[in-house]
Design a protein that fits this description.
Helices cover about 30% and strands about 25% of the residues. The protein is an alpha/beta fold. Helix 1 (about 15-25) crosses helix 4 and helix 16 runs parallel beside helix 17. The mean pLDDT is about 90. The structure holds S-adenosyl-L-homocysteine.
């Protein structure tokens, strides 16, 4: 889960090597580097503001600097007893690992993991943890402590010298140095049952129950809680809420899962039967008993904690993103986030390479295949299985790129499973915008974007549109101006433009803008020759008012004024 992936924060290059070693222990973790001092995966400009922001978001923090600095930065947020993510200070050279905050969020476990990766001993200071070798109040994933207040009293009794016995399965305590005795007054009880235990008991629930519903009946939370209490099961034992995949995306379901504090999972079933116990039969991969088999909610009780990610499938995701022209700084953070979360990345080979590098756990389906509809369908197939798919385009995905192909594929298919996919389109800086920005503001007044490719539309349509756009004195941005298979089209297009625009008209050419060796230049329409343009070039033909000027005899700027008058 994302919340367990720490942010590794460094202040200078001296910490980079240690940070990288910690990073290998946490796939997906990013190194946050102070801008101007060190280059990490993410740049920040001010340490305390950055640490506070991450902390407030509940992100586990591993800060490679003095413990005191970290404490001072976070201090203003500490009086609020809300969620407390793990916070650790690590010495720059990796020689010390100090857990500071987040005892109940597993900070000591993280300290051990990091110390292990760095080959040192963690500076554990929690007394229960030191005495027993584990934090009894912080059971591992898959288990939930019933009551913290009761737990604290229990641990202080243990620290005062009492012994305990364990009822139920608590494999993580096998190696703990707990004072045990068969007739102890204190009991650690591990059970999915709602237990009205006395103060002598530390109650821990294995998250071993899955609730299934067809979701048709309004009050899902009420029905689940009723089913649980009718079976004597504690709410904290619930691991997942299971619903038919066709219902994915319904807000009531997302809200119900959030209220219950469980993961929402999906299952595909025959359209004719979405009875709760049929859902469970199709989705459960571990031995279990059915506790309540009746509509509207059925419960499956497994013999051990259930990993929610093993039940049915996740709701698949398809993000169609724009990379911008190529310069990473011009990519939207939302596109970066989608790439980081991706299990699968699809797209034209060149762009997939531009979007990388990728982690070993990410599948890259780079292809030279120009068949865009086929690629779009492949993306839906993967996403419908529950994967997080990213389809990359250069520039903006909605400008002569994959977003329209993806929507066309969805529109044509009528496939309910594809419809259940969480689809998002993340915009990007299109080549026309990137080129224009470098030249100045040639698109400062009305303009149009035209693709000169006649692969998917008849050439006559292109000619007709060119005539209208040129006649209307619009600034024009030409995409796909030429290609090996379309050698003559640009010259023909320019002939048409020249019927309407004078040879003095300003033209901007952007080639490989935002990529290595990128170049933006300008000239007059009279000087423009077809051979100056290739398939990596953006051609912007100015209007009658687009003009160039230079500042102090140096920088040249081009702009189209915001006003208009006939010349
Ligand atoms: N979705 C892309 C456009 C794809 S069409 C976008 O929004 O930018 C491909 C055409 O875009 C190319 O033939 C070229 O005309 C233009 N183009 C794409 N990237 C470019 C870049 N970095 N520099 C100049 N032109 C580019």
């Amino acid at each position: 889960m994302n919340s367990t992936v720490p942010a590794i924060v460094i202040l200078g290059a001296g910490a980079l090597e240690t940070a990288r070693r910690i990073q290998t222990r946490y796939p997906g973790a990013q190194i946050h580097g102070l801008a101007g001092r060190v280059e990490g995966d993410v740049a920040y400009s001010e340490l305390s503001a950055h640490l506070r922001e991450l902390y407030a978001r509940g992100t586990p923090l591993v800060a490679l600097c003095a413990a005191g600095i970290v404490i001072r930065c976070i201090a203003p947020l500490l009086s609020d007893k809300g969620a407390e993510p793990p916070v650790l200070a690590v010495a720059e050279d990796g020689s010390a690992v100090v857990p500071l905050l987040g005892g109940l969020a597993g900070v000591n476990r993280m300290a051990r993991e990091i110390a292990d990766a760095l080959g040192v001993s963690p500076a554990i200071t929690t007394s229960g943890e030191l005495r027993f070798g584990t934090c009894v109040l912080n059971p591992p994933d898959g288990y939930a402590l019933s009551s913290l207040t009761q737990g604290k009293r229990f641990v202080s009794d243990l620290l005062a010298g009492e012994s305990t016995r364990i009822e139920g399965e608590a494999p993580w305590l096998d190696d703990a140095r707990l004072p045990r005795s068969a007739d102890a007054r204190l009991v650690i009880r591990v059970t999915p049952q709602a237990w009205n235990g006395s103060a002598d008991e530390l109650l821990i629930h294995p998250r071993s129950v899955v609730a299934a519903t067809d979701g048709l009946d309004g009050d899902i939370v009420g029905h689940v809680q009723h089913a649980l209490s009718a079976s004597g099961i504690a709410g904290l034992s619930l691991a997942a809420l299971l619903v038919p995949i066709e219902r994915a995306g319904e807000v009531t379901l997302t809200e119900a899962a959030a209220t219950l504090g469980v993961t929402l999972r999906f299952v595909a079933t025959p359209a004719t039967d979405s009875k709760p116990h049929t859902l469970l039969a199709a989705a459960m991969r571990v031995p279990h008993d059915i506790l309540a088999g009746d509509s509207p909610v059925a419960l499956a009780l497994a013999h051990a904690p259930v990993d929610p990610s093993s039940v049915g499938q996740a709701r698949g995701r398809l993000s169609v993103i724009g990379l911008g022209p190529g310069d990473a700084r011009l990519m939207a953070p939302a596109a970066r986030a989608a790439l980081d979360a991706a299990t699968d990345v699809l797209g034209y080979e060149t762009y997939v390479t531009m979007a990388g590098p990728f982690r070993a756990d990410q599948r890259v389906h780079g292809t030279d295949n120009r068949e865009e509809m086929q690629r779009a369908r492949h993306a839906f197939e993967l996403a419908a299985e529950g994967r997080s798919v990213v389809m990359v385009s250069s520039g903006d995905p909605g400008v002569f790129a994959m977003a329209a192909a993806v929507l066309e594929a969805l529109h044509e298919s009528g496939n309910a499973r594809w419809g259940s996919v969480e689809l998002e389109i993340v915009p990007g800086v299109s080549a026309a915008m990137a080129t224009a920005a470098q030249a100045g503001a040639p698109l400062g007044h009305d303009f149009c974007m035209l693709s000169l490719s006649d692969n998917l539309k008849p050439w006559e349509v292109i000619e007709n549109r060119l005539r209208h756009a040129a006649g209307a004195d619009l600034v024009m941005a030409f995409y796909n101006p030429v290609s090996r298979a379309r050698p003559w089209q640009l010259d023909k297009a320019l002939d048409i433009v020249r019927e309407f625009r004078s040879p003095e008209t300003t033209v901007v050419l952007g080639r490989n803008v935002g990529r290595p060796g990128g170049q933006v230049r300008h000239m007059s329409l009279g000087e423009l020759r077809g051979e100056m343009v290739d398939m990596r070039t953006m051609v912007i033909i100015g209007s009658s008012l687009t003009r160039a000027f230079s500042v102090n005899g140096k920088t040249q700027w081009i702009y189209t004024p915001r006003w208009y008058r006939q010349v």
